[in-house]
Amino acid sequence: MTMKKALLLGGTGAMGVNLSKLLIMDGWEVAVTSRSRTGIDHYGIEYVRGNAHNVTFLEGVLSRGWDAVVDFMIWPTAGFAEVRDKILAACKQYIYLSSYRVFADSPEITEKSPKLLDVSCDAEYLATDEYALAKARQEKLLRDAERSNWTIVRPAITYDRSGRFQLCTLESEAWLRLALAGHSVPLAAEMLDKQTTMSWGGDVALMISRLVGNPKAIGEDFNVCTSKHQNWGRIVEIYGSVINMRLKKINLSKYERAAGGIYQCKYDRMFNRVMDNSKVLGATGLSESDLIDVEEGLTRELRIFLEHPAFRSPSAMQIGRLDRVGGNIFSPSEMSQLCRNGSAREIVKYYLSWLFV
């Protein structure tokens, strides 16, 4: 019997790694595009070196023919329009990773809930190709395609021992580095009461794996996440049960200036994000009890990460702004270590941002 073949575009992140292993266990032959890795690992996963944003490289790897293509890439909308038909023609099923952020504010979000792209009256925002809008536009491009062999999946916020631990709009290389250094972590007081949905990346990968090769998934969209939710204040408490963390509440406008990502604040984190996952559970045969509780999952994954922490380099400018409003400051030597022995330029950026936030 011929093995089914799956290609994961840009699938080297935590979710892609989990999905690759699950597909291998289910009897799939799996290849993953990577900017750096090549060869076959001990799980039997093949790594194809190249940049999937490069159309020539993409056409080459697609020419091998695939039963499923799972797309973890972040495309500009114009770039996605160029490759859409090429990908759809090269596989039996194209799984496109969108985001729950495409949705407007709703009491409970189902697959039929209104999208920001369709209901927003913010002309300045709509003129951008910000992440949530780009994903929504690319969903429309898929629906408008001649071929309908696509599946749209929308994760909510995911966390994983690889270091993905979000807090409001802050990534772990910002807030967790501050907390571990004994600095205050400034957060918007108004945001702490907002509901959020956070799923372990392994659970999201499990849901996607049950959609790959699933006839019920063709031409359909799914919210791939837990239905459990809690406010950001509770997330602070969960993180605080693992590490010593000093929270400093500030107002929203000050937080936006310090953290950046104003559209993410305004059109996501300041909404109550309560997700309905009944459609994906019905299509996959999973139940909510198969998914890990956020308190157990966050605690476990953060503790594992902290055994051998490997942070991405932070934005020196963002750290400077956060430290200023948090009432702390790093020494030059500490900042050098924080930026992996960063250049003098990065250290200067930190102090300038601290001074002029």
UniProtKB/TrEMBL annotation:
Pfam families per record = NAD_binding_10
Could you tell me which residue ranges the NAD(P)-binding domain spans? 10-162
Q: Name one GO cellular component term.
A: cytoplasm
Q: Which GO terms label this protein's molecular function in UniProt?
A: aldehyde dehydrogenase (NAD+) activity
Which PANTHER family does its entry note? NAD(P)-BINDING DOMAIN-CONTAINING PROTEIN-RELATED, PROTEIN YEEZ
> What is the recorded name of this protein?
Epimerase
